[in-house]
Fold each of these.
Amino acid sequence: MLREDEDRDRQYVCEFVLTHATVSCGRWELQRYNVEAHGRLGEHYAASWQPGQAIVIDGRFEYRVCDTLAGPLPSVWIVAHCIDPTLGTYPHTDHHQQNIA
């Protein structure tokens, strides 16, 4: 999602959720990360993103408390300094179906 950030001189901010599959205790787990990219980086990523694209993000973690219907909940965000899409598409699209011994 690309939006204008009124707190930061009205520059654009791209916000998205990055998903990553990993193995924990012999089972596949899907991890989700909230990511935001500001300014020209955010505009470029919003315009060039493609489904299934594997990326590398360089940035910093930021702790936030988000208001939800269940009350305030802690949340960790990645504030991107660089998004590298040179990996192409993720080569193992059936990775969640593989059995781990």
Amino acid sequence: MSFDLRTSDLRTFDLIIKRISRTLQRITQKLNGRFSFMDHDDLYQEALLQLWIDFQGGRLEAKTDSYILQGCYFHLKTTFARHRAAPRS
């Protein structure tokens, strides 16, 4: 898998993260402790990874910060649901 990243793309992504980082940290702190397999830092990294994937897919263009943060929140909730539903051995 190769990425053709332009400097302007990285700057744009960096600006998005700088704008929403504080609120995203609060969201991950709110969700922290619900499951022992992920701590606050893991949740934050999971949210950033999903943001990167959405950014690369063009799904963050012309979206408000609120829309982006809601997407992060629902992604993390879905991650919890998947782990809860996974069969245990």
Amino acid sequence: MQALRPGFDQPNSNEAAVRAAVADGKPVVYGAVPEQNVVSTLVGAHTYSVLGIASDGRFRVRNPWGVDGHDRGSSADGELRLTWAQFHQSARFVWIAG
């Protein structure tokens, strides 16, 4: 298992590593920092699975509790899309299985 700390390591190589892992079908887990996040819909101090990369290049992450900060009745419950800047700035850790 590979551990990345986006806030402290080299952000450009981390982005490439996460994108490559997702493309290879490896499980990737992302932990949001406990403080107020860059993305208001993220739950702080919470872990998300990285589902993939959207067609616009954003990271698709999912809260296993099914909460995405939007209305509970929406069809996107639990899933958020983050730019690399949002992903990197709000991450406490990233784990890549492999």
Amino acid sequence: MGAMSKTAVVTARVSEETLGLLDSIAAHHDRSRAWVIARAIELHAQRESEFIEFARKGVEDLDAGRTITHEELVDRIRARQARQAA
């Protein structure tokens, strides 16, 4: 038998509209409302974690002086577009 993953129970208040959306999604996928909510939380947490890491790296670059001006960025984009068009 496979190892069981550990889970925790959480409680949240949502609007009737959101509840209806969750139920519609659950019905569409032939899954439970709890499955839809757990999946939504997992996906959001993963995306948010990735964004926080992206922002952290940006702040690290900023603190280290690894920046360019807006004009330099536009010039680089235009140069890349010109190369691709050629």
